[in-house]
Predict the structure of Crp/Fnr family transcriptional regulator.
Amino acid sequence: MATIDTSLVAKLPLFAGLSPAELDAVLQEARSIRVPKNGHVFEQGEDAHSFFVLLHGHVRASKVTPAGEQIVVRYVAPGETLGVAMAIGLSRYPATATAVDDSIVLAWPTAAWPRLVEQYPELATNTLLTVGSRLQETHSRVVEMSTQQVEQRVAHALLRLAKQSGRKVENGVQIDFPISRQDIAQMTGTTLHTVSRLLSGWEQKGLIESGRQKIVLREPHQLVVLADQAPDDKTS
């Protein structure tokens, strides 16, 4: 941990409220792990041996249903926690975390969690805030899946990703990590064919640009209009 500059992580949500000395003590128990693109941080069903903070890169959390269908649960951005299964009473990871680009995580052993939160209650408070925020996001997605047509769901997904990890470029806002049309389909409960048809149509209208695992929102405000209105024709 001597290679980690504490000033780089002091402002991360998990460590809010810790003094420099407390942060240094917490970091002394962590190890830095490089995860190559497409490598797994952890896998669904595996014993929850560690919890993590993403320092660099992006991670896709996905879940396989009993029927064998893969669902993209969310994308994790730098500074976010992941694998905090023990904080919600789970002994195994409920999803698989895969690096979508070369990534670096800090890892703490799960066995250290009870002692750390007893010594530093801010860790528990900050984790609870993170879990609550993700629960709200999940509720929003459930409402979208239950009440919205697929065009709205896809627009919401792109806007959510751009808000989380968007980077301004000359022609708009680029989602700043590799993402495929299949990923979007798995996020929005629809098919690759439907997502491809929608994105191709939006590209023809100048709303987006898409390439191999790359999407740029050229007209984000128009996507907001699409996300918030009810189309006349229902797509599935």
Residues 121-147 form the longest helix (27 residues). The mean pLDDT is 91. The chain has two domains: 6-144, 149-228.
